[in-house]
């Protein structure tokens, strides 16, 4: 653990020096890369994440999360060895994408709804690529195949759920969970209890959302410049050579080298490479699970004051990549050759396609889907807990 922490600190120093040297030695390329990162953030990330941040903060402060936690407690304990509040983080993290899971884990920790061990466990499998990104941008936008998008999404989410299940069993003895004894009426009374004025709640939610989404934009711009610098200096080529030594074609290895740092650019590079169809699919599914050092830095920055170990989060990303790889291989056996032939006809409008999406509409739809999912699970969990008591009478 000490070695990993030292390496992380050293890597941070190297990144700062690399950015400084590149901006001084090649300011035009640095400006072009930062502009591309800024456009990506403004066109896609800002409208996609900002509504989620605001709504999630309001749900925590109003008490909806705590109310649903009482109902989700049995299901979360059995599946992941986590308290009921984890259900809200899982649903929102899975539908909204990076780094909403980390933001919610931090907020619940600050509200004393999670301890450090639970927060570390939960953050390791609730920071996912969103369905919009996997199905829309990767499946349709990059590979022109909705079927592939659904396959990648299935592998991505199932591997993360299985990861949470495995980690829960591995650490079940070290994560204390107090049994929920409150009735539904008590939980409802707390939900409708006195609250701060709506104006105060909304103002605080907007303030926190702006801070979080701006921080995400800073990481996107910084790593856009860093990736450009590493490509120009030949470092990406060196990493690609290492992947090539494992039997992966060099064009696909180049995309993996870029994706090691920035997932989106790496996935795009893989999609236009000359590798085989199966090779591209497996490389992209591994990248989605790995998520890129850029996303990992975002997550660890958000939870930096929670004493969450990067070594634990890093191992979780590697394990998810292995699990997702396996799910994808199995899924490919179920996909017909006719569907595979539809893949990799790249759309000519790819460069402008992401900005043409109505991300706000999709984000709001994702929120509604998350709330509907949580409501159904909550009702089922509650009915399961009250049915034995009714049968006794």
Characterization of the model:
- The chain has 393 residues and is mainly alpha-helical.
- Helices cover 78% and strands 0% of the residues.
- The chain is built from 18 helices and no strands.
- The longest helix is centred in the N-terminal third of the chain and has 36 residues, at 27-62.
Outline:
The chain has 393 residues and is mostly helical. The chain is 78% helix and 0% strand. Residues 346-357 and 389-393 have low confidence and may be disordered.
* Shape category: globular
Rg, rounded, reads 22 Å
Q: Give the helix tally.
A: 18
Query: How many distinct folded domains?
Result: 1
What is the average of the pLDDT values? 80
Query: Major sheet: size, sense and barrel closure?
Result: none
Number of strands: 0
**Based on helices, strands and strand pairing, what is the structural class?**
mainly alpha
Percent strand equals under 5%
- Helical amount among residues, as a percent range? over 70%
N-to-C span: 55 Å
Please write the string of helix (H) and strand (E) elements.
HHHHHHHHHHHHHHHHHH
Contiguous uncertain segments of 5+ residues: 346-357, 389-393
Produce the secondary structure layout:
Elements: H1 2-25, H2 27-62, H3 64-80, H4 85-96, H5 100-110, H6 116-123, H7 131-142, H8 146-170, H9 184-191, H10 198-233, H11 235-244, H12 250-259, H13 263-271, H14 277-290, H15 292-302, H16 310-334, H17 337-341, H18 359-392
Features:
about 400 residues; mainly alpha; 18 helices; globular; disordered C terminus
């Amino acid at each position: 653990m000490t070695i990993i922490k030292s390496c992380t600190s050293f890597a941070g120093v190297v990144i700062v020096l690399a950015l400084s040297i590149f901006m001084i030695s090649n300011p035009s390329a640095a400006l072009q890369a930062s502009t591309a990162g800024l456009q990506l953030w403004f066109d896609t990330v800002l409208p996609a994440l900002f509504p989620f941040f605001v709504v999630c903060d309001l749900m925590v402060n109003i008490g909806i999360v705590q109310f649903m936690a009482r109902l989700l407690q049995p299901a979360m304990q059995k599946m992941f060895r986590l308290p009921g509040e984890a259900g809200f983080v899982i649903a929102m993290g899975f539908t909204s994408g990076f780094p909403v899971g980390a933001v919610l884990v931090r907020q619940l920790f600050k509200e004393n709804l999670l301890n450090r061990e639970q927060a570390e466990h939960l953050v390791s499998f609730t920071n996912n690529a969103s369905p919009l990104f996997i199905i829309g941008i990767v499946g349709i936008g990059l590979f022109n195949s909705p079927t592939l998008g659904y396959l990648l999404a299935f592998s991505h989410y199932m591997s993360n759920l299985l990861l949470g299940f495995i980690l829960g069993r591995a650490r079940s003895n070290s994560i204390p969970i107090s049994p929920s004894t409150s009735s539904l009426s008590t939980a409802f009374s707390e939900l409708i209890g006195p609250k701060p004025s709506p104006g105060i709640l909304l103002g605080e939610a907007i303030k926190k959302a702006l801070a979080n989404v701006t921080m995400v934009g800073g990481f996107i711009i910084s790593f856009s410049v860093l990736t450009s610098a590493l490509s120009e200096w030949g470092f990406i080529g060196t990493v690609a050579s290492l992947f090539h030594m494992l039997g992966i074609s060099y064009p696909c290895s180049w995309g993996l080298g870029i994706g090691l740092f920035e997932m989106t650019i790496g996935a795009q590079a893989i999609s236009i490479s000359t590798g085989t169809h199966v090779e591209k699919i497996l490389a992209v599914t591994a990248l989605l699970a790995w998520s890129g050092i850029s996303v990992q830095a975002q997550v660890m920055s958000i939870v930096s004051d929670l004493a969450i170990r990067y070594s634990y989060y890093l191992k979780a990303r590697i394990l998810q990549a292995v699990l997702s790889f396996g799910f994808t291989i199995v899924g490919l056996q179920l996909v017909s050759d006719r569907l595979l032939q539809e893949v990799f006809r790249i759309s000519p409008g790819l460069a402008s396609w992401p900005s043409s999406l109505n991300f706000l509409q999709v984000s709001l739809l994702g929120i509604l889907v998350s709330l509907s999912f949580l409501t159904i699970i909550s009702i089922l969990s509650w009915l399961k807990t009250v049915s034995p008591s009714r049968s006794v009478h």
